[in-house]
Amino acid sequence: MRNRLLATLDHVTLAANVVGSLLILSLVVLITADVAGRNLLGAPLSGVPELVSLSIVAIVFLQAPQALKAGRMTRSDGVIDVLHARFPNLARWLETVFDLVGIAVLSAILYAHWPMMTRAWTRGDFVGAVGDFTAPTWPVKAMLALGCILLALQFGARIVRRFVR
Predict the structure, then answer these.
(1) How does residue 132 score in pLDDT terms, banded at 50, 70 and 90?
(2) In degrees to the nearest 10, what's the CA dihedral of 63, 66, 79, 163?
(3) 47: left (phi over 0), alpha (psi -120 to 50) or beta
(4) What is d(CA 106, CA 109) in angstroms, rounded to the nearest whole number?
(5) Does the predicted TM-score (pTM) go above 0.85?
(6) Phi, psi at residue 137, to the nearest 5°?
(7) CB within 8 A of 147, min separation 6: which ones?
(8) Distance of alpha carbon 125 from alpha carbon 88, whole angstroms
(9) CB atoms closer than 10 angstroms to residue 42
(10) pLDDT by residue (tens digit) across 12-54?
């Protein structure tokens, strides 16, 4: 049962990473079309700066859980590598403290973000200028919430994998 839950979490995390990658590809196409429109036709695409600024946040939060799972999260390993070599149990407990702090930070972000996300949904918040370009903000806020949840769960999964064989 535990292995199935961890495998399901890993699959959902990978799917979120793929969505983040597709957002990156979409931004490349969008920015290229905007630059071509500006330079060749004298007519830029409306809303490109707004979409780029929204998408960057979504991409970070969608791809961070997979980065953590794959061991590619940015950190300094100098001290922890020495501890793993000399005091492996201490190193495991320090990494667990790191993971618990990660869960706490992500819980705080989610707690603070949730009302903003629900408010954006109920009020129909958008970016852009009416009559030119508008885009709703709630999808990006929902992706941020999903990314927080997945990242916190991946921190928890690291603890489970570390202590339960």
Answers:
(1) confident
(2) 150
(3) left
(4) 5
(5) yes
(6) -95, -20
(7) 16, 58, 60, 61, 62, 63, 64, 65
(8) 50
(9) 7
(10) 999 999 999 999 999 999 999 999 999 999 889 999 999 999 9
